[in-house]
Amino acid sequence: MALPPPPPRFVLRGSQSAVNTLHFSCRSEADSPPLLFSGSLSGLIHVWNLQTRRVDTTLDGHAGQSVYWVKILEGQHLLLSQGRDLKLCLWDLAEGRNAPVDSLSLDSVGFCKGSVLTEGTQGCWLLAVPGKGMDEVQVLDMPSKTSVCTLKPEAGAKAGMPMCLELWKPPSGSGPLLLAGYEDGSVILWNVSERRMLSRLSCHKEPVMSLDFDSGRAKGVSGSSEKVLCVWSLDEHHSLKVCRTQELTNPGIADVAIRPDGKILATAGWDHRIRLFGWKQLKPLAVLDYHSAAVHCVAFSDPGRPGEQLLAGGSKDQRISIWSVYSQT
User: Fold this and answer.
1) What are phi and psi of 86, to 5 degrees?
2) What pLDDT is recorded for position 326?
3) How many Cβ atoms from other residues are within 10 Å of residue 184's Cβ?
4) How many contiguous H segments (helices) and E segments (strands) does the chain have?
5) Number of separate domains in the chain
6) Are strands 240-247 and 253-258 parallel, antiparallel or unpaired?
7) WD repeat ranges (predicted)?
8) Average pLDDT of 277-296?
9) CA-CA distance, 296 to 268, in Å (whole number)?
10) What is the C-alpha separation between 161 and 13, in angstroms, rounded?
């Protein structure tokens, strides 16, 4: 008989509203405690110290509007946050300020999270966000906020709104590419430098809620409000194709995350559960049943500290569960 999954290693309470997004920062410096950033429905960002298991700092820059994306720019001590107030805020954590050092006004009223790609040039990075037109994605050079391009499907494509974005750079060293999941259930691969669509794949019957991509294996995964995970690959000609699908017990996949070592896939379910799969063959490994409401987000710690790989799940029940599972896989 299979062993039951373990309970959470610990639980973080105190966000006082639904948790929408999570991001780890586990720097390898001995004097830097591992941190977890959370964005909440109330518009607050909490910086959790995972050694003390308490909030170190609370950031308030979104006028009480829901925060649905947080992201650290590693090596720059900068935090990005995106909220329903149509603002993307930039926070300088090194200075210890409780106010944003810069912000960017957004045009889209949807829930599409941004995506960043750190460039070789020190201090510069690419940012992809939903654009002004309903079906547009805007790519900006940051921190200058210079527009690189606007990506829009051809007139007959009717993909609908972008729902999730993933900027990445191929190992071959060619220019940046963007994977975008759309309202019509398709995933589109864009060449950012050439401003053109390379491939389009119909994955889901419902809007793509989330996606993640393993650039080393040229393989990605997406989820929607259906009860099906879709795994797809990218060939040498930059053509997307479906590899396999995995049916789940219940519908509604709010988030997917591939562990940085490429061994484990986690999903956040509307059915209150976090599911774990082996990423190579999509073998079901465990169902983590702790939360009492929909799980909105999952995140893995970066492998900065060997042996300390953690998984976090954020829920509508206002709690963040921290798990140590398959750490030695």
Assistant:
1) 60, 35
2) 78
3) 21
4) 0, 28
5) 1
6) unpaired
7) 201-242, 288-329
8) 96
9) 6
10) 34
Angle at 110 between CA 82 and CA 66, to 5 degrees: 45
Rounded-to-integer distance, Cα 18 and Cα 2, Å: 33
Q: Which of 54, 51, 86, 94 is nearest to 69 (CA)?
A: 86
Chain centroid to Cα 255, Å, comes to: 7
CATH, residue 50: 2.40.10
Look-up of token digits 């830097």 = 32
Hey, what amino acid is at 304? G
- Could you tell me if residue 71 is inside a domain? yes
Neighbours of 32 (CB within 10 A): 12
Residue 143: asked if its preceding bond is cis (omega within 30°), the reply is yes
Q: Alpha carbon of 152 to those of 80, 139, 160, 165, 188: distances in Å? A: 25, 11, 10, 13, 10
Coil, strand or helix: which one is 180?
strand
Position 148: which residue type? V
Q: Are 233 and 189 spatial neighbours (Cβ–Cβ below 8 Å)?
A: no
Rounded Cα distance between 228 and 248, Å, is 6
Q: Decide: 270 and 256 in contact? Cβ < 8 Å.
A: no
Q: List, for residues 81-117, the tens digit of each pLDDT value.
A: 999 999 999 999 887 788 999 999 998 878 899 999 9
Separation between Cα atoms, residue 66 and residue 300, nearest integer Å: 22
CA angle 127, 162, 215 (to 5 degrees): 60
- First-last CA distance in the chain: 20
| Residue from 119, 129, 14 nearest 76 by CA | 119
Q: Is residue 93 part of a domain?
A: yes
In a domain, 259, yes or no: no
> Residue 301's closest CA among 264, 250, 249?
264
CB-CB neighbours of 176 under 10 Å: 18
Domain extent at residue 41 = 19-106
Q: Is 242 inside any structural domain? A: no
